[in-house]
Amino acid sequence: MVIDLAYSTIKNRDIQNRDIRPEFANKLLCVPPSLENKGNIYVVKTSDPKVPEAYLNQFQKDFSLFLSLRSEEIVPQGRMFITLVGRSGTVKEDDIDLSNLPLYTPREEEVKEIIEKEASFIIETLKAFEINHSDPRDGNLVFDENRIGNYFASERRAITEPMLARHFGDHIIDHLFSKYAKHMSSKSMLERIKHTTIVIYLINK
Fold first, then answer.
1. Torsion of CA 151, 152, 158, 164, to 10 degrees
2. Rounded distance between C-alpha atoms, residue 97 and residue 75, angstroms
3. For 173, phi and psi rounded to 5 degrees?
4. What is the 3-state secondary structure of 59-107?
5. What is the pTM of this model?
6. How far is it, in rounded angstroms, from Cα 87 to Cα 198?
7. How does pLDDT run across 158-198, given as a tens digit for each residue?
8. Long-range CB contacts (< 8 A, 24+ apart) of 162-165?
9. Most buried among 94, 141, 142, 158, using CB within 10 Å?
């Protein structure tokens, strides 16, 4: 297990505001212990039902620690803005992710429950935004399929590259995400993709 010191320690105090990006907010400190997820490196449709539960339990533990430490860094009434890659369905229905990485994409209600239970922050705003890239009624529709694929690849790369490189080596990264971009820009994928981002604005108590 490799502990991310930027995530799990206090680096500064008396901070007025913090802006937390998905590559930190979606991270787990470790893969859930005793995880049996043969053939996959993440939670996918074919995963054992116990796997999503294990990932959620680990995210609850780690994100609670993350909130507690950030609360000690930020001054009272200071603000923290967090962006998470989220999802709208249950984990076992998600078969389009990079697919045992220390990474979790939560649902809006899961995040809300953790913040309220940890109790260091007041929730000013917590909202999930969903874009269906294949729905012509969506004003955010992007018609350039290659652009969509590259967008998803860049987003996933920002979150997962350090973990993948540590496990498999730097030499595979460019090729891996090039293939991922092509996969995500295919017509069959665009018909199923719903991109969810969770935006959170918190006030330190």
1. -140
2. 37
3. -65, -55
4. HHHHHHHHHHHHHHHEEEEEEEEEEEEECCCCHHHCCCCCCCCCECCCC
5. 0.73
6. 9
7. 777 877 787 678 888 898 888 888 877 775 565 566 678 99
8. 163/101, 163/102, 163/103, 164/101
9. 94
